[in-house]
Amino acid sequence: MLLPNCESYKIKMIEPIYQSTKEQRLQWLRDAKYNLFNLRSEQVFIDLLTDSGTGAMSDRQWAELMSGDESYAGSRSYYKLKDTIKDIFGFEYFLPTHQGRAAENVLFSCLVKAGDKVPGNAHFDTTKGHIEFRKATAIDCTIDEASDSTSVHPFKGNIDLIKLEQVLKSDSPENIPFIMLTITCNTFGGQPVSIENIRGVHKLSRKYGIPLFFDSARFAENAWFIHEREEEFRGKSIPEIVKEMYRYADGMTMSSKKDGIVNIGGFIGLRDEKLYKLASTFNIMFEGFNTYGGMAGRDMAALAQGLKEVIDKDYLDTRIRQVHYLGSLLTDEGIPVQQPIGGHAVFIDALKFLPHIKREEFVAQTLALEIYLEAGIRGVEIGALMADRDPVSRENRFPQMEMVRLAIPRRVYTNSHMDYIAAAIKNVYKRRESIRSGYRILNEAPILRHFTIELEKIPVIK
Ligand code: F0G
User: Fold this and answer.
1) Residue whose CA is at the smallest distance from ligand 1 atom 11
2) Residues ≥6 apart with Cβ < 8 Å to 136
3) Cβ–Cβ < 8 Å for 135, 112
4) pLDDT tens digits, residue range 194-242?
5) Distance in Å, CA 269 to ligand 1 centroid
6) Ligand 1 centroid distance, CA of 257 (Å)
7) Is residue 12 part of a domain?
8) What is the best residue among 49, 50, 52, 54 to mutate for testing ligand 1's pocket, by most ligand atoms within 8 Å of CB?
9) CATH classification of the domain holding 433
10) So what's the pLDDT on residue 388?
11) Domain span at residue 233?
């Protein structure tokens, strides 16, 4: 008999979680102004808000915490991390930052100016935020298949090379500071980018003399998909695939809270010494001296260990198969989810789930709130609220898709939790026609509004 897949680790420490009643959740949502970011974590039973900084560290990572070197300058833990980054990604230069968006802030301070264009594959919201904050434009060149939740394209994070070349041709290289490739592409569902596509993007970047950077938050998950789906790499190890991916990158920004499997941290990896020196100045101003830059020594040591663990094939099998297990439970019930299932999350297609709710009433947010009400499960809206207003017209932007992301923290929940989540969403799906209205905005920030937005429920007119 073929042995089933099972976790490549066992549990050494647990944290209790608590159920609540529907009445409690209704009241908590009212108090939270219908913004799931405003809930206290005790009010959540299963937290799928994000896979960022929410993973469980291994016993070896905890051991590294104890041996961290907290020297202000020249910390041993810094050098341990530096060597690990060189080893895994091949970058000579690296700067630690407190998280991914800080890496973006430092790098973009060097490179992005007003009026610039930054093409990429659906930049993550903080990346887009940091570009737009500098009065530049993030241009999405993802392949069209990414916006069709039923398409089973194996690399839906890929860039459309024709769209990219049009952008590169449209302006002089001084106004296109770099191309940003996000691997995996979070916005479109944790979808991978193939090496073939990376090579194509690299070729264009060389043709037009524009550097290529990788937003690398989920680089190991991307490598796993390449291993599974790209013929050329079937027999290769994950570390070999990662090396091949990064051969084509001039640099990387990293949110270590994802595929670093740590609770906080980030970094920049670079090849160019001149850019490294320029970025160092901003790093010292915004983050801290170059050998800690916003991280404790112990956290750098735990990150070095996490980066080694995340490229272990057994770990990645466990991780991505769990996400796919949840995805298949939902798909089997006919619930519309982004296909194929991505690496870190299941994305529910809210426009198909609640087709009768008006887009102006924030369909994905409506669905995310219903899932919380049903069973205390917290997902996140990836839709019109997150898309922000157009920076020029100040009109609401309605992206092609409205999704609820159920992001699975690394090494935290078991497959019985996945069964529970699937049952809860099935219940919401069954009563979907009884959900009659969405929400309107009471208060919002000018940028990255979804974090702090306040909403009110629109009364149903009978
Ligand atoms: N890039 C990507 C692709 C991300 O998913 C994130 C964060 C960042 C950059 C920024 O990193 O949070 O460390 O500052 N994504 C989280 C999420 C917040 O929930 O997907 P950060």
Assistant:
1) 100
2) 112, 113, 114, 115, 116, 117, 118
3) no
4) 999 999 999 999 999 999 999 999 999 999 999 999 999 999 999 999 9
5) 17
6) 8
7) no
8) 52
9) 3.90.1150.10
10) 86
11) 59-310
